[in-house]
């Protein structure tokens, strides 16, 4: 049931733009705007001369952020425990970008208000369980309301999901989609670290045998050959969002996701002991020790510097298999957090446009055409290449 306070109407006086950009049907709200990722998103929208609104809990921080951006973006504080304030924020907005994680703890109030007010919803989550909840609990209602719910619109997992779509194109029903990540030198933000603690509790799933099944909790995933210049690397378990998004638009019996052990254990000597540490750490996340770890993370630096961000390069390889046919592609780029801000901002601007007609819960590849979307990310060195099709070395068992 939608409360009367959440029915869409005319623009509130404080949000009515003086000169609404013709490409937008209404402002873009940025919730969690004063956080690390939120500030990057706000800067992207300001650079694009978009019509947008800054929101979060702290009015003073919001006003300070607005003052530093230029263009005088509107400020509208709202609280996650006050549904009416969230509905008031979104009234008149075309789209909302939610940057306030961990999303399993803080995301649903914004998502619920977005669907209730017929506002397109995008977020920067990397949390598998939240993505699945967003699709299953709100996708159908979003379709009825004429809007979209598009979670995981950042580095995790736009490049991987779109690369999978491009690689699988024209191959029909597949035996397997595999995605392998390498992100050397990655430095998490405080918010990413808190989300990672939530993910360590377990409960993640893998797409196998045409259904979501509990993921294996073993850490080791053998080795994977990235090709030159990376070569063969030791791999680790990665509860990635493509396990949730890829089966929504690619008919495949199985999805496998993995990440280089060096990404999550930067010192090479730590790689072999990860399997020994992962299970007790995961169990600890279900005890009062988690509060201690949360407090420790909260004392971390907020995130990497601009120089540190720019130094991080990423490589994602996708392999799709059908019988003896193997097709492989690779996407590369830099600055994971800058790219996240750019992808979610670009998506929000497209969704706010007058020609956007997609509806319901959508993976990135369903919401936006992958080729044109990735082409717009050249400022972050994003390039992708599809290799020649070849014979698979072994048959894949689901």
Structure, explained:
This protein is α/β, with parallel strands linked by helices and about 400 residues long. It folds into two domains: about 5-155 and about 340-375, NAD(P)-binding Rossmann-like Domain (Rossmann fold, 3-Layer(aba) Sandwich); about 160-335 and about 380-390, Dihydrodipicolinate Reductase, domain 2. Helix content is about 40%, strand content about 20%. It has 16 helices and 17 strands. The chain has helices at about 35-45, 60-70, 85-90, 105, 110-115, 130-145, 160-170, 190-200, 240-250, 260-265, 275-285, 290-300, 305-310, 335-350, 365, 370-375, and strands at about 30, 50-55, 75, 95-100, 120-125, 150, 175-180, 205-210, 210-215, 220-225, 230-235, 255-260, 315-320, 325-335, 360, 385, 390. Strands 7, 10, 11, 12, 13, 14, 16 and 17 form an eight-stranded mixed beta sheet that branches. Strand 2 (about 50-55), helix 2 and strand 3 form a beta-alpha-beta unit. The longest helix is centred in the middle third of the chain and has 18 residues, at about 130-145. The relative contact order is 0.15. Residues about 1-5, about 5-20 and about 265-280 have low confidence and may be disordered.
Q: List low-confidence stretches.
A: 1-5, 7-22, 266-278
Rg (C-alpha, Å) = 21 Å
Mean pLDDT: 85
**Portion of residues within helices:** 25-40%
What's the CATH topology label of the largest domain?
A: Dihydrodipicolinate Reductase, domain 2
Q: By helix and strand content, what is the structural category? A: alpha/beta
The domain count comes to 2
What is the β-strand count? 17
CATH architecture of the largest domain: 2-Layer Sandwich
Question: Total helix count?
Answer: 16
The portion of residues forming beta strands comes to: 15-25%
CATH class membership of the largest domain = Alpha Beta
Main sheet specs: 8 strands, mixed
Shape: globular
Distance between the termini: 41 Å
């Amino acid at each position: 049931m939608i409360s009367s306070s959440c029915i869409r109407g005319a623009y509130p006086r404080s949000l009515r733009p003086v000169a609404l950009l013709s490409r937008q049907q209404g402002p873009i709200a940025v919730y969690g705007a004063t956080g690390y990722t939120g500030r990057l998103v706000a800067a992207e929208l300001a650079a694009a001369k978009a019509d947008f609104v800054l929101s979060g809990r702290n009015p003073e921080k919001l006003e300070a952020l607005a003052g530093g951006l230029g263009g005088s973006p509107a400020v509208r504080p709202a609280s996650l425990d006050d549904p009416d304030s969230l509905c008031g924020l979104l009234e008149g907005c075309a789209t909302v970008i939610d940057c306030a994680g961990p999303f399993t703890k803080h995301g649903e109030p914004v998502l619920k208000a977005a669907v209730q007010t017929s506002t397109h919803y995008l977020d920067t989550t990397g949390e598998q369980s939240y993505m699945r909840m967003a699709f299953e609990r709100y996708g159908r209602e979003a379709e009825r309301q004429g809007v979209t719910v598009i979670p995981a619109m950042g580095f995790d997992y736009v490049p991987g999901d779109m690369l999978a779509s491009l690689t699988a194109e024209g191959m029909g029903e597949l035996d397997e989609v595999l995605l392998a990540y390498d992100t050397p030198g990655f430095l998490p933000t405080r918010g990413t670290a808190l989300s990672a603690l939530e993910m360590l509790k377990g409960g993640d799933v893998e797409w196998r045998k045409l259904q979501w099944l509990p993921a294996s909790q073993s850490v080791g995933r053998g080795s994977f050959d990235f090709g030159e210049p990376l070569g063969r690397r030791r791999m680790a378990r990665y509860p990635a969002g493509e396990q949730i998004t890829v089966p929504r638009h690619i008919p495949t019996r199985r999805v496998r996701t993995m990440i280089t052990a060096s990404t999550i254990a930067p010192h090479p000597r730590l790689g072999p002991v990860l399997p020994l540490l992962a299970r007790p750490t995961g169990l600890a996340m279900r005890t009062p020790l988690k509060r201690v770890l949360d407090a420790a993370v909260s004392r971390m630096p907020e995130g990497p510097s601009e120089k540190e961000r720019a130094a991080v390069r990423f490589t994602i390889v996708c392999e799709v298999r059908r019988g003896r046919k193997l097709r492989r592609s690779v996407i590369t780029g830099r600055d994971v957090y800058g790219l996240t801000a750019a992808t979610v901002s670009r998506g929000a601007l497209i969704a706010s446009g007058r020609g956007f007609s997609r509806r319901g819960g959508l993976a990135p590849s369903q919401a936006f055409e992958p080729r044109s979307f990735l082409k717009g990310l050249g400022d972050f060195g994003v390039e992708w290449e599809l290799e020649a099709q070849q014979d698979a070395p072994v048959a894949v068992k689901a």
